[in-house]
Structure formats: C-alpha cells, structure tokens
Amino acid sequence: MIGKVDTPLPIVVLVSGRGSNLQSLIDAERRGELGGRIEAVISNRPDAFALERARRASITAEVIDHKAFADRTCFDRELMNRIAVYQPGLIAMAGFMRILTPDFIDRHMGRMLNIHPSLLPEFRGLDTHRRALAAGVAYHGCSVHFVTNDLDAGPVVIQARVKVEPDDDSDRLAARVLRREHIIYPLAVRWFCEGRLWLKDSRAYLNGKLLTEPFLLDEKHQ
Ligand code: GRF
After folding, report:
1. Best of 170, 178, 180, 184 for a ligand 1 pocket test (most atoms within 8 Å of beta carbon)
2. Alpha carbon distances (Å) from 195 to 46, 110, 125, 173, 206
3. Which of 43, 53, 113, 115 to mutate to test the pocket of ligand 1 (most atoms within 8 A of CB)?
4. Which of 119, 164, 177 is nearest to 143 (CA)?
5. 34: pLDDT confidence band, cut at 50, 70 and 90?
6. What's the 94 CA to ligand 1 centre distance in angstroms?
C-alpha cells in the first residue's frame, strides 16, 4: 500500500441521488487511500440519500434546491458561492444530475472530475445501460473524466470494462458496472489529490505523461 498523504486536498462532492460513489470516496478516505479530505457534500435534491451518507460520516451536508432558483445561471451562481467557502482543490461530481453553465465550468476548469456509467465516448448522457444492451455491445463499463464544457466529453482518465452476459438486463448490468465505478473513482481522485493527474490545454496527464488513451483497469482487479 502507498503511504498516506500528509496534507489532504480539500474536496467538495456534488450529488443528486443515492450516493454510492460518494460512499466509495468516504470509505477510501477512511482507509487513508483518498489523498484528500471531503470537506462538504452538496446536493441539488433535498431527498438525496447521499446527504444521509455524508451526515453519518460527519461530513457537512448542504442542499441547494435547484427548484428554488429562477434559472440555471442563478442556481450555478449560488453553487459557486457555496463551494467557494470550502476552497476545494477538487470538485468530484458523483451522480450530480445537473448540467453546469460555462461560467461554472470555466471557474473550476481542471479541478472537476465526474464518473460516468459507460465506456466514453460511447453512450454519453442518460440511460446508458439500456442503450448499451440495445446496441448489443460485447463490453460496457464506466469512465472517470475531467469535466469540461462538452457534456460527458472531457478527457477520460480511467475506465473499467465489464463483459456483457447473454442474460443481462439493465439492472444486472448496472450493478456490475457500479461495482467497478466504486473502484475507479477513488483511484482517480487519489491520483488527482497526489498531484499525479492534471488537465492542461484540454488534455489529461498522468504521472507527467499525456494520456493518449484512458488508463484501463484490469478486468480481474477487485
Ligand atoms: C452512477 O452510475 C454514476 O456513474 C452516474 O450516476 C450514478 C450515481 O450513482 N453519474 P450513485 O448516486 O453514486 O449511487
């Protein structure tokens, strides 16, 4: 195991729902394997179970209900203000179901990661598992990418593949993909926190080298 990092990077996690990826980050932090410290969890939905997970871990949990704002710009402005309080080195989006404005993204460029349930660039957007099955792909999976102004199209850092089985339905496939998400997201966050991963000129670098293709997690890796 690699040693613990002395000065953990402050992280804010953005969520909207059940928060299993948030949990994987919390668990990694507890094990001393995140390289960062989750300072706050912010949800745009008051009923997100992710908020409960944060509270159970004694992490500040905030709600900014998007329904209370006149438009996307107003919501994002408030989100920016609330995030700024924590001065995060990284904003980790973990099932955050909002499209962010260019203002927001430009302000945090290079400091935002997202987890997406497909092998990007395949199946951007929603409902990825059903679409993957309908397309008849042999492999599906998940990706961690930097967030840029192109939806689900920022540079991909790491992916994990999952073989599609003949009897798969959307739920079964989603569950297997999710298990891989919980491995690759903490890993990518750790790389970022340790200063091994960065974005420059719209490209991702890992360990000082341009990532010409995403790091692929070995299928047997658990
Ligand atoms: C995950 O599948 C993630 O890839 C996607 O939204 C889902 C969130 O799940 N962006 P959870 O809230 O982390 O359990």
Report:
1. 178
2. 33, 12, 29, 33, 9
3. 115
4. 119
5. very high
6. 6
Residue 68 DSSP code: G
36 forms bridges with which residues in the sheet? 9
Which of 66, 108, 116, 129 is an active site residue?
116
Q: How many angstroms is it from 69 CA to the middle of ligand 1? A: 24
Beta strand 215-217 with 9-15 is: unpaired
Per DSSP bridges, beta strands 36-43 and 9-15 are: parallel
**Residue owning tokens 């402005």:** 77
User: For 56-115, how does the pLDDT look when each residue is reduced to its tens digit (9 = 90+)?
Assistant: 999 999 999 999 999 999 999 999 999 999 999 999 999 999 999 999 999 999 999 999
